[in-house]
Amino acid sequence: xxxxxxxxxxxxxxxxxxxxxxxxxxxxxxxxxxxxxxxxxxxxxxxxxxxxxxxxxxxxxxxxxxxxxxxxxxxxxxxxxxxxxxxxxxxxxx
Length: 94
Known about the structure:
The protein has two helices and five strands. It is of the alpha+beta class. It has one domain (about 1-94): CATH 3.30.1320.10. It has a five-stranded mixed beta sheet with strand order 4-3-2-1-5. The termini are far apart.
C-alpha cells in the first residue's frame, strides 16, 4: 500500500521533515516514490514552516494512497492557511 508520510531530515536536535509518497513496507527514510513537500517544525521568523504540492496530494489520494495521521493534520492546516491567503488576495484586488 502507498502512504503519504514524513521522512526525517535535518541534524541532531534540529528536525526537518520531507513529505513523501512511499510504499508502506519501506523504512521511514528509505526509498520513496515522490517528494511532495516539506515540514519545518522549528521555523522561526520569515522561514517557511510548511509547503505542499496540493495537486500531487490530491492525485495520490485519488489513487488510493493513505496519509499518516500527522500528514492528515498538516494537509488540513495547509488548506486552512492557503484559504486565508486566497481571501486576503481577493480583498486586495477588490
